[in-house]
Write the structure tokens for this entry.
Amino acid sequence: MTDANRVLIFDTTLRDGEQSPGATMSHAEKLEIASLLDEMGVDIIEAGFPIASEGDFAAVSEIARAAQNATICGLARANFKDIDRCWEAVKHAKSPRIHTFIGTSPLHRQIPNLTQDEMADRIHETVTHARNLCDNVQWSPMDATRTEFDYLCRVIEIAIKAGATTINIPDTVGYTAPRESAELIRRLIAEIPGAGDVVFATHCHNDLGMATANSLAAVEAGARQVECTINGLGERAGNTALEEVVMAVKTRHDIMPFTTGVDTTKIMHISRRVATVSGFAVQPNKAIVGKNAFAHESGIHQDGMLKNPENFEIMRPEDVGLSATNLVMGKHSGRAALRSKLAELGYEMGDNQLKDVFVRFKELADRKKEVFDDDLVALMRDASTDPADEYLKVKFLRVVCGTQAPQSADITLTVAGEDQQATAQGDGPVDAAFNAVKAIYPHNARLQLYQVHAVTEGTDAQATVTVRMEEDGVLATGEAADTDTVVASAKAYVTALNRLRVRKEKLGGKDTREVSYKDAG
Ligand code: KIV
Ligand code: ZN
């Protein structure tokens, strides 16, 4: 194995992933995800788009200050104002990077309405400017895979001469296919003067379900940076999934002799955290991180697995951070056992937090015969330490439901420490519970997403509920778990309202994300 086969992992969960409508994360959540990425050995973290809003700027700056290992990168359109703002945010990092881009395809050239020559000049000026600020500059010709090959070569050469150190080739609309992806990278590296002095990166979108295949094909052709997101989070069909690329090269090292710096045992934990904070659940049959990815339910499979796991498993669950046995504890399990099980699942905690989680674990174990790993993950999801979540709290809830409409709910909420009670009717128990919350805490927020998942099998399974609310363009997501679906729903609803309240206060009543990377720079 030589260094020439080392592939850099560039994670853009917090920029391209967070841009997908509805995936907005809070400041604290962005810091948490960045720290998990840093710990797991991602090489470059694209932490946000600093010019987009005060919130993005603050998140990128703080992530830059906190990062221990990874290079911290910010996105900037091809203008001095974006680039300066980006530098202001990333300059605090031990290893900062500016990523600047412009759409180079015929369609994208129309956005800023520039001729080919004018665009070439703009690229020269902006990359030079970025390079004067920072030694580490990435340049991307957006929609590269639909850009005329000759023009693409011309602008990449300009960017390299102006000082770009990484050239990223985005398949912005998920249009390419593996053979074409490989061919493009191979030809660019072969034909552009100076190409050997920079790192070529691949950035694929999954519109045709080929993002991972396209990225790996690009690596085989010479790309040495893969841009990706956890769970493939991203606009439309998403971006290349980090876990797929990393596990593909680890598992098929025989035919893809590449290495990454990622500690794969951290994959499951970060996948769950990203799913929770983004509100984008992972589909059960998703490669690597789906709930069923390592489940062997059919009789024949189970028999074969017992004889030899390799019969049906190409990867070991432990390699992605799943424990070999999922059945954990019951009501007789002690605090030390809980601490060690949670650590195995990626949750390290202090004594006070453990005390609180232990009480909740005992309550759950009283209601549920068997407590599985997934139950503990759901419990942890609920164990918020965010002070914002304290304002409204569900203290008591009783619903009357059945075949006879309307259903009704009695609720007691603690509002800033004071109990308030209301009764309301609704179209079903969840609607009645939400109406009762609204009677106590009137608001104009609109329900954008209501999602229920059973954590494990069985009628005593916990339900995890995700609720996303929107008001004046400000979004907030709440999640909660309980063996009672209506209770979980009410708790998730209240958490979303708490977070919305704090976000609206911070943003002065409006979402300050004023520009998108799709606006002409
Ligand atoms: O998909 C894309 O083209 C992008 C660029 C900003 C790199 O995300
Ligand atoms: Zn993208």
Summary: The chain has three domains: 8-278, 319-382, 387-507. The two ends are 42 Å apart (CA to CA). The mean pLDDT is 90.
